Amino acid sequence: MTTTHSPREDIAEVIATEAEIRDAVERLAGELTEDVGELSPILVGVLNGAFVFLADLVRRLDFPLEIDFMNASSYGEGTVSEGLEIQTDLSLDVEGRHVVLVDDILDTGQTLQGLVRHVTGRGAASVRTCCLLDKPARRTVDFEADYVGIEIPDRFVVGYGLDFAQRHRNLPFIGVLRPELYQSQ
Ligand code: 5GP
Ligand code: MG
């Protein structure tokens, strides 16, 4: 397999441009500043997908904050959240702290719902959730993020941290792959 071509060539359709993402990140930064700017929050990025979004977001936040990461995946396909497998747990102590979970995309809602429970269980004073993208049509649990950047249709997207088979995270915009690429996996 040749890997020397640009990942841009694999994109069939752009769902969110760099400018649209920048505007959304700026708006979210304003909302967070308003709500948690005086709370010295801990921002927790949900790996791996949120690394680009978190990096851009925190550079727009001009108040004291700390950064941590978690890696978790939800399992089970029912209409209720079945469970959460945590691959990388918090390294900071969140007891009594205000936490903002930062994720790339809200899909079924199971992962973030589970993470909110987990962080709440660790004694956080408050837990908010911030997602760059939201696919409301895909929700299987009763969960909404407190801060949402861009609502998108029910499509599998890549770029700006989001992958397909670990690739395309480095695209600076969000797009949909050419259909034959999804089928080849
Ligand atoms: P949820 O628990 O909300 O169903 O899952 C959210 C996670 O699934 C996201 O953090 C992301 O890692 C992954 N995911 C959901 N939709 C997409 C998508 O369209 N593209 C990619 N690359 N990952 C997705
Ligand atoms: Mg994710």
Secondary structure layout plus pairing:
Blueprint: E1 11-16, H1 18-36, E2 42-47, H2 51-58, E3 66-75, E4 83-88, E5 98-106, H3 110-121, E6 126-134, E7 147-151, E8 157-158, E9 174-177, H4 179-183
Parallel strand pairs: 2-3, 2-5, 5-6, 6-7
Antiparallel strand pairs: 1-9, 3-4, 8-9
The structure holds guanosine-5'-monophosphate and magnesium ion.
Structure write-up:
- The chain has 185 residues and is α/β, with parallel strands linked by helices.
- It has four helices and nine strands.
- The protein has helices at 18-36, 51-58, 110-121, 179-183, and strands spanning 11-16, 42-47, 66-75, 83-88, 98-106, 126-134, 147-151, 157-158, 174-177.
- The chain has a six-stranded mixed beta sheet with strand order 4-3-2-5-6-7. A three-stranded antiparallel beta sheet has the order 1-9-8.
- Strand 5 (98-106), helix 3 and strand 6 form a beta-alpha-beta unit.
- Helix 1 packs across helix 2.
- The longest helix is centred in the first third of the chain and has 19 residues, at 18-36.
- 35% of the residues are buried.
- The mean pLDDT is 94.
- Magnesium ion (MG) binds next to strand 5.
- Guanosine-5'-monophosphate binds next to strand 5, helix 3 and strand 8.
Gyration radius, to the nearest Å?
16 Å
What is the helix fraction of residues, given as a range?
A: 10-25%
Number of E-state strands: 9
Q: How much strand content do the residues show?
A: 25-35%
Derived from helix and strand composition plus strand pairing, the structural class reads: alpha/beta
**Would you list the SSEs in sequence order as H and E?**
EHEHEEEHEEEEH
Report the end-to-end length measured between terminal Cα atoms: 13 Å
Q: What's the overall average pLDDT, rounded?
A: 94
Could you say which small molecules are bound to this protein? Answer: guanosine-5'-monophosphate, magnesium ion
